[in-house]
Amino acid sequence: MEIGIVGLPNVGKSSLFNALTKAGAAASNFPFTTIEPNVGVVSVPDERLEFLTKTFASAKTVPATIKFVDIAGLVKGASQGEGLGNKFLSHIRSVDAIVEVVRVFDDKNVIHVHGGVDPDNDISTINTELLLADLDLATKALERANKERSKDPYVLKHIRGLGKAIEFFNNDIPLRTKLELAVELEEYGFLTAKPLLYVANVSEGSADISAIKAHAEAEGAGVISINVKAENEIVELPESDQAEYRSELGLKSGLDEVIKAGYELLGLITYLTAGPDESRAWTITKGAKAPQAAGKIHTDFEKGFIRAQVYAFEDLKKYGSEKAIRDAGRLRSEGKDYTVVDGDVIEFLFNV
């Protein structure tokens, strides 16, 4: 999973990136500190994986990972190349989901490109630029499709779909709210079709995120609040002290919150494999069948799929071993039509 972190300059994008990845990206009190995107890969925290490693005495633990991309700040006119607009748009087009950082905190020592804190206006500025970029892309794509117009149903279908998309963009409607059309036009990489999570960058005295919630509800997006400044201070502490400090401040882990919301937005779940060699977490799309899940390990597993030996992680915690699970009748043999569930521990049997 690759997540792009975007927002206006000086809203805390790079600070959030640093808190999530501990990458030490530059974060300063002036626009465009980030020019080329900063990239950080982090492990997805999963207590289940730690338990499996101990239970099986695994030689190696391999968690799922997320790539975060800190993208240059966006300004009004980016869709026409203002600021670092063209770079911004090219970098964001490659990610799976967007985290849009919105400034809610008020700090006279940190300048705001619009002169004052206004979450509603900031969101409108960024979303307008994304819509304009998509409108330009759709218009050009429709022109090309019309030149290639024929009796080919595929081309005709795209002409109709692009026409609908242009109508939505002209009416400030992001494509993520039109799921069927977004899937139909997936190959074009429209920015407003990508899952979106708003991160309200708050301080202790700034809890009003009603404007952000209203946008999220209207746009089919998610929203969470993170005190980015406090988060950066916490992640600098020894790991053994972080949980206690969070408890004192009443703060959840920013990384955990972003990952949880990201998985929900993208419709992802985790299944697990375990043994003496390694315990590993695998990320798949919710609703995936057993052969598709096997294919995440190797294409041969999917091609030669025979069956899956499955039990729930919670049963392992309850019974203590695979043998006890088997004796209790909780180990299942599942076929090609089995839909994998989050937390399944699976051994795939295959023949190539």
TrEMBL record:
Pfam family, one: MMR_HSR1
Ranges where the TGS domain occurs: 267-350
Signal sequence, start to end: none
Gene3D superfamilies: 3.10.20.30, P-loop containing nucleotide triphosphate hydrolases (3.40.50.300), TGS-like domain (1.10.150.300)
Cofactor(s) needed for function: Mg(2+)
Residue span(s) of domain OBG-type G: 1-246
GO molecular function list: ATP binding; ATP hydrolysis activity; GTP binding; metal ion binding; ribosomal large subunit binding
Keyword terms: ATP-binding, Magnesium, Metal-binding, Nucleotide-binding
GO cellular component, one term: cytoplasm
Coiled-coil segments on the chain, per record: none
InterPro entries: ATPase_YchF/OLA1, Beta-grasp_dom_sf, G_OBG, GTP-bd, P-loop_NTPase, TGS, TGS-like, TGS-like_dom_sf
Entries under PROSITE patterns matching the protein: G_OBG, TGS
Protein residues bound to ATP: N10, V11, G12, K13, S14, S15
Function description: ATPase that binds to both the 70S ribosome and the 50S ribosomal subunit in a nucleotide-independent manner.
Family in the record: Belongs to the TRAFAC class OBG-HflX-like GTPase superfamily. OBG GTPase family. YchF/OLA1 subfamily.
PANTHER family, alphabetized: OBG GTPASE FAMILY, OBG-TYPE G DOMAIN-CONTAINING PROTEIN
Descriptive protein name: Ribosome-binding ATPase YchF
Origin species: Candidatus Berkelbacteria bacterium RIFCSPLOWO2_01_FULL_50_28
Phylogenetic lineage: Bacteria, Candidatus Berkelbacteria
